Amino acid sequence: MRKIGILGGTFNPIHNGHIHIGKEALKALALDEVIFVPTGRPRHKLNDAALLNGNLRYRMVSLAIQGHNNFDLSDYEINKEGFSFTYETLKYFNEIYKDSQLYFISGADCLINIYKWKNVADIFKRATLVVFNRPGFSKDDIIAQKKKVEEEFNTKIIFLDIKPLEISSTDIRKAIKDHDEIQDIIPMSVMKFIKENNLYESQE
Fold first, then answer.
1. Which residue numbers delimit the Cytidyltransferase-like domain (predicted)?
2. Residues of the domain holding 21
3. In this predicted model, what pLDDT tens digit does every residue of 107-123 receive, in sequence order?
4. Rounded-to-integer distance, Cα 100 and Cα 103, Å
Protein backbone atom coordinates (compact mmCIF):
# COMPACT_ATOMS: atom_id res chain seq x y z
CA MET A 1 0.00 0.00 0.00
CA ARG A 2 1.32 3.41 -0.96
CA LYS A 3 1.77 6.00 1.76
CA ILE A 4 0.93 9.55 0.72
CA GLY A 5 1.62 12.65 2.79
CA ILE A 6 -0.63 15.69 2.37
CA LEU A 7 1.08 18.91 3.45
CA GLY A 8 -1.35 21.83 3.41
CA GLY A 9 -0.75 25.48 4.14
CA THR A 10 -1.11 28.97 2.80
CA PHE A 11 2.55 28.98 1.71
CA ASN A 12 2.50 32.77 1.74
CA PRO A 13 5.30 32.45 0.75
CA ILE A 14 6.70 28.94 0.88
CA HIS A 15 10.10 28.83 2.60
CA ASN A 16 12.90 26.45 3.55
CA GLY A 17 11.04 25.43 6.72
CA HIS A 18 8.23 23.93 4.63
CA ILE A 19 10.70 22.01 2.49
CA HIS A 20 12.45 20.78 5.65
CA ILE A 21 9.16 19.45 7.04
CA GLY A 22 8.38 17.65 3.79
CA LYS A 23 11.80 15.98 3.75
CA GLU A 24 11.61 14.94 7.40
CA ALA A 25 8.12 13.49 6.95
CA LEU A 26 9.24 11.50 3.90
CA LYS A 27 12.08 9.98 5.88
CA ALA A 28 10.43 9.46 9.26
CA LEU A 29 7.20 7.96 7.91
CA ALA A 30 8.71 6.17 4.90
CA LEU A 31 6.27 7.96 2.59
CA ASP A 32 6.14 7.37 -1.14
CA GLU A 33 5.47 11.05 -1.77
CA VAL A 34 4.44 14.30 -0.14
CA ILE A 35 1.84 16.42 -1.92
CA PHE A 36 1.89 20.15 -1.17
CA VAL A 37 -1.62 21.63 -1.16
CA PRO A 38 -1.80 25.45 -1.09
CA THR A 39 -5.02 26.59 0.56
CA GLY A 40 -7.68 28.30 -1.48
CA ARG A 41 -9.97 30.39 0.73
CA PRO A 42 -9.38 29.40 4.37
CA ARG A 43 -12.15 30.80 6.60
CA HIS A 44 -9.74 31.72 9.37
CA LYS A 45 -7.81 34.01 6.99
CA LEU A 46 -10.75 35.42 5.05
CA ASN A 47 -9.88 39.03 5.91
CA ASP A 48 -6.12 38.62 5.69
CA ALA A 49 -4.97 41.33 3.27
CA ALA A 50 -1.49 39.78 3.16
CA LEU A 51 -2.79 36.51 1.64
CA LEU A 52 -1.70 36.47 -2.00
CA ASN A 53 -3.82 35.20 -4.85
CA GLY A 54 -3.84 31.41 -4.88
CA ASN A 55 -2.32 31.12 -8.34
CA LEU A 56 0.72 33.14 -7.24
CA ARG A 57 1.20 30.98 -4.15
CA TYR A 58 0.77 27.85 -6.27
CA ARG A 59 3.45 29.08 -8.66
CA MET A 60 5.89 29.71 -5.80
CA VAL A 61 5.37 26.20 -4.40
CA SER A 62 5.90 24.76 -7.87
CA LEU A 63 9.24 26.57 -8.11
CA ALA A 64 10.26 25.58 -4.58
CA ILE A 65 9.77 21.82 -5.03
CA GLN A 66 11.45 21.52 -8.42
CA GLY A 67 14.27 19.00 -8.23
CA HIS A 68 13.00 17.41 -5.01
CA ASN A 69 12.25 13.75 -5.50
CA ASN A 70 8.94 12.48 -4.14
CA PHE A 71 7.43 15.98 -3.85
CA ASP A 72 4.28 16.81 -5.79
CA LEU A 73 1.80 19.69 -5.92
CA SER A 74 -2.00 19.90 -6.09
CA ASP A 75 -4.18 22.80 -7.19
CA TYR A 76 -7.35 21.24 -5.75
CA GLU A 77 -7.99 23.90 -3.10
CA ILE A 78 -6.82 26.74 -5.35
CA ASN A 79 -9.43 25.80 -7.96
CA LYS A 80 -12.17 24.80 -5.52
CA GLU A 81 -15.15 27.13 -5.22
CA GLY A 82 -16.03 28.36 -1.75
CA PHE A 83 -14.06 27.86 1.44
CA SER A 84 -11.34 25.27 1.93
CA PHE A 85 -12.05 22.57 4.52
CA THR A 86 -9.56 19.83 5.38
CA TYR A 87 -12.15 17.04 5.51
CA GLU A 88 -13.23 17.87 1.93
CA THR A 89 -9.63 17.95 0.72
CA LEU A 90 -8.96 14.55 2.26
CA LYS A 91 -12.13 13.15 0.69
CA TYR A 92 -10.84 14.33 -2.69
CA PHE A 93 -7.50 12.59 -2.20
CA ASN A 94 -9.19 9.45 -0.84
CA GLU A 95 -10.99 9.17 -4.17
CA ILE A 96 -7.77 9.61 -6.17
CA TYR A 97 -5.59 7.34 -4.04
CA LYS A 98 -8.11 4.60 -3.27
CA ASP A 99 -5.53 2.00 -2.30
CA SER A 100 -3.23 4.32 -0.36
CA GLN A 101 -2.87 5.42 3.25
CA LEU A 102 -3.06 9.20 3.65
CA TYR A 103 -1.10 11.15 6.24
CA PHE A 104 -2.23 14.73 6.84
CA ILE A 105 0.81 16.72 7.97
CA SER A 106 0.28 19.89 9.97
CA GLY A 107 1.81 21.98 12.74
CA ALA A 108 1.20 21.66 16.46
CA ASP A 109 -1.20 24.60 16.25
CA CYS A 110 -3.56 22.35 14.25
CA LEU A 111 -3.70 19.83 17.08
CA ILE A 112 -4.11 22.45 19.79
CA ASN A 113 -7.00 24.07 17.87
CA ILE A 114 -8.47 20.86 16.42
CA TYR A 115 -11.91 21.45 17.94
CA LYS A 116 -12.32 24.57 15.79
CA TRP A 117 -11.99 22.51 12.61
CA LYS A 118 -15.05 21.38 10.68
CA ASN A 119 -16.04 17.69 10.77
CA VAL A 120 -13.06 16.64 12.86
CA ALA A 121 -14.21 13.02 13.15
CA ASP A 122 -14.33 12.74 9.36
CA ILE A 123 -10.73 13.96 9.13
CA PHE A 124 -9.57 11.10 11.35
CA LYS A 125 -11.52 8.57 9.29
CA ARG A 126 -9.84 9.70 6.09
CA ALA A 127 -6.21 10.14 7.14
CA THR A 128 -3.68 9.72 9.91
CA LEU A 129 -2.94 13.10 11.46
CA VAL A 130 0.76 13.90 11.71
CA VAL A 131 1.74 16.95 13.75
CA PHE A 132 5.18 18.51 13.96
CA ASN A 133 6.42 20.77 16.72
CA ARG A 134 6.59 24.50 16.10
CA PRO A 135 8.24 27.37 17.98
CA GLY A 136 5.99 28.68 20.74
CA PHE A 137 4.40 25.33 21.60
CA SER A 138 5.36 23.23 24.60
CA LYS A 139 6.14 19.61 23.83
CA ASP A 140 4.32 18.58 27.01
CA ASP A 141 1.20 20.47 25.89
CA ILE A 142 1.35 18.81 22.47
CA ILE A 143 1.65 15.32 23.98
CA ALA A 144 -1.18 15.99 26.42
CA GLN A 145 -3.48 17.26 23.68
CA LYS A 146 -2.50 14.34 21.46
CA LYS A 147 -3.54 11.84 24.13
CA LYS A 148 -6.82 13.66 24.78
CA VAL A 149 -7.81 13.80 21.11
CA GLU A 150 -6.77 10.19 20.48
CA GLU A 151 -8.99 8.98 23.30
CA GLU A 152 -11.97 11.12 22.31
CA PHE A 153 -11.93 10.18 18.62
CA ASN A 154 -10.53 6.66 18.99
CA THR A 155 -7.70 7.48 16.63
CA LYS A 156 -3.92 7.45 16.43
CA ILE A 157 -1.95 10.68 15.94
CA ILE A 158 1.72 10.74 15.01
CA PHE A 159 3.92 13.36 16.65
CA LEU A 160 6.82 14.17 14.35
CA ASP A 161 9.38 15.36 16.86
CA ILE A 162 11.72 17.20 14.51
CA LYS A 163 13.81 20.27 15.13
CA PRO A 164 11.84 23.10 13.52
CA LEU A 165 13.58 25.78 11.49
CA GLU A 166 13.03 29.21 13.02
CA ILE A 167 11.38 30.61 9.88
CA SER A 168 8.06 32.41 9.57
CA SER A 169 6.21 33.50 6.44
CA THR A 170 5.09 36.58 8.37
CA ASP A 171 8.70 37.52 9.10
CA ILE A 172 9.63 36.90 5.46
CA ARG A 173 6.89 39.25 4.23
CA LYS A 174 8.10 41.93 6.63
CA ALA A 175 11.71 41.43 5.51
CA ILE A 176 10.68 41.83 1.87
CA LYS A 177 8.82 45.03 2.64
CA ASP A 178 11.84 46.34 4.57
CA HIS A 179 14.20 45.23 1.76
CA ASP A 180 16.10 42.90 4.08
CA GLU A 181 17.95 39.84 2.79
CA ILE A 182 16.03 36.56 2.75
CA GLN A 183 18.17 34.33 0.52
CA ASP A 184 19.13 32.03 3.41
CA ILE A 185 15.55 31.16 4.36
CA ILE A 186 13.72 30.88 1.06
CA PRO A 187 14.46 28.95 -2.15
CA MET A 188 16.38 31.06 -4.67
CA SER A 189 13.78 30.44 -7.38
CA VAL A 190 11.00 31.70 -5.10
CA MET A 191 12.97 34.77 -4.09
CA LYS A 192 13.55 35.60 -7.76
CA PHE A 193 9.84 35.16 -8.52
CA ILE A 194 8.89 37.46 -5.64
CA LYS A 195 11.28 40.18 -6.79
CA GLU A 196 10.30 39.93 -10.45
CA ASN A 197 6.62 40.32 -9.56
CA ASN A 198 7.10 42.89 -6.75
CA LEU A 199 5.17 40.71 -4.31
CA TYR A 200 4.57 41.71 -0.68
CA GLU A 201 6.42 45.05 -0.93
CA SER A 202 3.35 47.25 -0.47
CA GLN A 203 1.45 45.06 2.01
CA GLU A 204 0.93 45.92 5.65
1. 6-174
2. 2-166
3. 999 999 999 999 999 99
4. 10
Q: Identify whether 75 is part of a domain.
A: yes
First vs last C-alpha separation in the chain = 46
- Spatial separation of the C-alpha atoms in residues 122 and 118, rounded to whole Å: 9
Q: What total number of domains does the chain contain? A: 1
**Are 194 and 60 a contacting pair, CB within 8 Å?**
yes
**Does residue 187 fall inside a structural domain?**
no
Q: Which residues pair with 8 in a beta bridge?
A: 37
Max Cα distance, the chain (Å)? 50
Instruction: Note the pTM of the prediction, 2 decimals.
Output: 0.92
Q: Which residues pair with 2 in a beta bridge?
A: 100
In angstroms, what CA-CA distances link 93 with 4, 70, 73, 181, 182? 9, 17, 12, 38, 34
Segment (H or E) for 103: strand 100-107
